[in-house]
Amino acid sequence: MAAALALASVAPVPAGAQPSRGAAAAGAVKVLNVPVKGMTCALCTRGVEESVKRLDGVVGAAADLDAGLVRVEAAEGRSLSIHEVKDRVVKAGFKVGGECQVEAHGRFSISPQGRITFRIPGTPYAYQVLEGSEMLRLFRSHPGLKGDFFISFRLHDHPRWKPPAIAIIRAEYRGSAPPAPGR
């Protein structure tokens, strides 16, 4: 089991790739909590919120001054671009200050070597999965990790980490994977 829960390798995602626009397929980034450094007043929070709300597909953005977080929600049937949200925070005059927490629909894949990857269909996002208690629980309840899942995860997107990795906070099984074509 340890081999199955080892760090996963992920096929490289092209630099600058962005999630597809329009209706989300089976996968989507639904909520993004971004840590923001430099917000010191209510005017700061409003500036960040208004900047992020201008992005296509964003239905809401709420900044929490005390926590130093901005919560961004996707419109129904849409997926957030993590890169674009972070860029908007920077363009508003602030810094992204740490690891984001993401809520997304997607699917797991396990390589023949037992490496686990979480992919968000309809986007270029694919992440190696780090071992943790929630991953172990999920693996025990759904051996093989087949099907669609909704997960909340911490995104470890450090410049020295290639590819990025995730630590699962919460996961829910959402149904069977569609049958493979030609079967």
Folded structure, characterized:
The chain is α+β, with helices and mostly antiparallel strands and 183 residues long. It has two domains: 28-98, Alpha-Beta Plaits (2-Layer Sandwich); 101-175, Nucleic acid-binding proteins (OB fold (Dihydrolipoamide Acetyltransferase, E2P), Beta Barrel). Helix content is 17%, strand content 35%. It contains three helices and nine strands; from the N terminus they run βαββαββββαββ. The chain has helices spanning 42-53, 82-91, 133-141; strands at 28-37, 58-64, 69-74, 95-96, 100-110, 116-119, 126-129, 148-156, 165-175. A five-stranded mixed barrel has the order 5-6-7-9-8. Strand 8 (148-156) and strand 9 form a beta hairpin. The chain is elongated and about 50 Å long. The two termini are 29 Å apart. Residues 1-25 have low confidence and may be disordered.
What is the count of DSSP helices, taking H or I runs of 4+ residues?
Answer: 3
How many discrete domains? 2
The CATH topology name of the largest domain reads OB fold (Dihydrolipoamide Acetyltransferase, E2P)
What would CATH call the class of the largest domain?
A: Mainly Beta
CATH superfamily of the largest domain: Nucleic acid-binding proteins
What is the count of β-strands?
Answer: 9
Radius of gyration: 17 Å
